[in-house]
Amino acid sequence: MTYPIKTSSGPVAVGIAVALIGLLLLLSPYRGLAVACLTVAAACVSSYHGIELDVGRQRYRSFTRVLGVHFGSWLHLCPCVRVVLKAHSDMMVHPNGSRSLPAERNEHLTLLLATPGTSIGQVMAEFTLYHREKALSVGKQLAAALQVPFVVMSDV
């Protein structure tokens, strides 16, 4: 059984704008272009990114869904003892070797699967700090699908 988990939405605002253009073009002689615009709009509005687990076959994939079709390659799913949500703050290093100012830090949340016997986990998704609630929701869904505990690090 597979478990698709939505991690982020597609460009809905773009889809709505293209749909409006398509509707206006329906009133013109360019009906073929109108149909193309409406098709692109449907693809934008219906698309999203996610993670799909196939626990029986021990595999997973990060995918993009467009018009109901999932695009993404399957990868091996390592044994997992828990799902972890950690905060990260990467320091940017510029080509001249100088380090970034604190305002240039790339702060994000990383959702990973902790594997037994190693301190390195399998990264499943990354979220901006503004999407903390989505990261928590996705982490809970992954833990439930894999039947392991969900751990949120204290700095999240």
Question: Could you characterize what this model shows?
Answer:
The chain has 156 residues and is of the alpha+beta class. It is built from 3 helices and 9 strands; from the N terminus they run βααβββββββαβ. It has helices at residues 12-26, 31-46, 132-146, and strands at 2-9, 48-54, 59-66, 69-71, 75-76, 82-90, 106-114, 121-128, 150-152. Strands 1, 2, 3, 4 and 5 form a 5-stranded antiparallel β-sheet that branches. Strands 8-7-6-9 form a 4-stranded mixed β-sheet, with helices on one face. Strand 2 (48-54) and strand 3 (59-66) form a beta hairpin. Helix 1 (12-26) runs antiparallel to helix 2.
Task: Sum this structure up briefly.
The chain has 156 residues and is α+β, with helices and mostly antiparallel strands. It has helices at residues 12-26, 31-46, 132-146, and strands spanning 2-9, 48-54, 59-66, 69-71, 75-76, 82-90, 106-114, 121-128, 150-152. The protein has three helices and nine strands.
Helix content: 25-40%
Oligomer: single chain
Taken as a percent bin, the fraction of beta residues is 35-45%
What integer value in Å does the Rg equal? 20 Å
Give the helices and strands as they follow along the chain: EHHEEEEEEEHE
End-to-end separation: 31 Å
Counting DSSP E segments of at least 2 residues, the number of strands comes to 9
Spans of at least 5 consecutive residues whose pLDDT stays below 50 are: none
Apparent shape? elongated
Structural class: alpha+beta
Main β sheet profile: 5 strands, antiparallel
